[in-house]
Amino acid sequence: MMKTDNPQKPTDEFLLLIRGTQWSHGLSPAELQKSMTDFYAWVDSLVEAKVLQGAQPLMEEGKLVSGPKGSTVTDGVFVESKEAIAGYFLLAVATMEEALTHARRCPILEYGAELEVRPIADVCRPMAEVKEATGAL
Q1: Which of 25, 37, 94, 130 sits in a 20 to 30 Å window from 5, CA-based?
Q2: Where are the domains of the chain?
Q3: Which pLDDT does position 74 carry in this prediction?
Q4: What pLDDT is stored for residue 99 in this prediction?
């Protein structure tokens, strides 16, 4: 029987993953300029709020490693996929609601990008399960 309760504990950090690498396709140069101006104003607002811990865009290429001892390496990022991760932001906020408030203000949502908001855990799930089973919480 599989255990459904997650023994991980959230930290006071959240990761915003920007999904969608093609959101800007089809924009005119003026629309693209405005979207980038608005986007960087949003980034500046995260800095001013003192919640931005880090952020980076990701290249539209990569590999997927799997199998025992990494025996399989395949192309793992497909830029035409709506789910491709374009970048991330690490926010220092106490609650999911606060993270969502910042995420909802991201201007590129208007163009089809999506933000996945994930709490950062104190430890990985397998370690949390070991700690729970051994009483080492």
Answers
A1: 94
A2: 10-134
A3: 87
A4: 98
